[in-house]
Amino acid sequence: MRARTRGPVHVVGTGLLGTSAALALRARGVETTLADPSPTAAALARDLGAGRLRQPHDPPPALVVVAAPPDVTASVVAEQLAAWPDAVVTDVASVKLTVLAELRRLLGGAGDHDDDEGARCGAAALARYVGSHPLAGRERSGAVAARGTLFAGRPWVLCPTSSSSPQAVAAVRDLADDLGGVPVVMEAGAHDEAVALVSHVPQVAASLVAARLREAPEPAVELAGQGLRDVTRIAESDPSLWVQILGANAGPVAAVLRDLRADLDVVLAALEQLADADEDARNPQCAAANSPGALAAVARLIADGGAGRARVPGKHGAPPTSYAVVTVLVPDAPGELARLLHDVGAAGVNLEDLRLEHSPGQPVGLAEVSVLPASRSVLESALRDLGWALLD
Question: Between β-strands 389-391 and 324-331, what pairing exists: parallel, antiparallel or unpaired?
Fold first, then answer.
């Protein structure tokens, strides 16, 4: 399909998000130019095929995408609004309210007192601005980690202000559509509260759990399984970036962490009650009998976690619990996983999701194949006939 985004598009900031956006635009045939405070970073993005470096004689852009660090996003947006008086400007920072507040200050208090000349000029500039945030990323950063498919199927939040023109909103929506994102419109404050819960606090939690491993005994670390890998997957994120993100969204993140701390205190009290009651370590049942209510608190935590997990959307928005899982023992040898996927397709079953669990020190792994419940028995029968070992 022909891209709806009208070029040229100028991408300012050639890290993971900026370069990924530029690669996707170039793949759709949209003229794209690049800029970055680091000439080396901009040149690298160019060499990766993300576009060309902007030259003084180039025509003005129709759309500017600011992919700068959160602590300088507002100032870069203000510079781009001033440099290109006819361009729509968006940013892809993961926090929106602090960026908007700082931008309004830089634009002379736009929207605060329209009788002021500076505020009126700022409001005119603000009409061409729409904050946005694609909820996509990788554990690695920089242009070398960029992918033109990074935004495919991912929510792309648009946070227009009361000053944003319909044309500006449409331009940013077209950008999200062209890059494969799913546009979602939210108010800036609501966005920041939402990402605090679903993105920023998970990063803090993953880092806290992973930090416990720094001085753990080697035998304990060697027992690590897929559960620990899942929980700590994002713990390798860039500290300098997350300092900025958490600092810019400190209020909403702190609110979620306070609630989390309250729940943790309840579970901690229950476990301490069980530990204190267990005078005979060889008889754990004594602790349960002498600690009324403690087990219920622990069970409630696990049950509430399961109920919350069930709300996380999976493929096509369906909850993960709507799928059946067929677990297959896969030899750790070249071509075995490809053979499994071929056999799943040959059975006429559509693969809804795939999760791999590695067995440390063992020449096998577990492939958890998610399928529609009606297809489970068909797939199990077909795979067993082909010699695959399944786990019940």
Answer: antiparallel
> SS in 3 state form for 339-392?
HHHHHHHHCCCCCCEEEEEECCCCCEEEEEEEECHHHHHHHHHHHHHCCCEEEC
Cβ atoms of 244 and 203 within 8 Å: the answer is no
- Beta-strand runs (E) in 226-291: none
Per-residue pLDDT tens digits for 248-276: 999 999 999 999 999 999 999 999 888 88
pLDDT tens track for 131-154: 999 998 776 778 899 999 999 989
CA distances from 254 to 81, 102, 231, 260, 265 (A): 33, 21, 20, 10, 16
Place of tokens 């990924």: 20
Q: How many CB atoms lie within 10 A of CB 313?
A: 10
Identify the residue whose tokens are 């002379």: 108
Q: Answer whether residue 11 shows pLDDT above 90.
A: yes
| Alpha-carbon distances of 246 from 207, 230, 233, 240, 254, rounded to whole Å | 13, 22, 18, 10, 9
Q: Considering only residues 59 and 139, tell me which one the structure prediction assigns the higher pLDDT.
A: 59
For residue 291, pLDDT beyond 90: no
Give, for 253, the enclosing helix (H) or strand (E).
helix 250-277
Which residues does residue 355 pair with via DSSP β-bridges, in sequence order?
A: 368
Q: What residue spans of 55-200 are helical by DSSP H? A: 73-83, 97-106, 117-126, 166-178, 188-195
pTM over 0.85: no
Classified as helix, coil or strand, 229 is helix
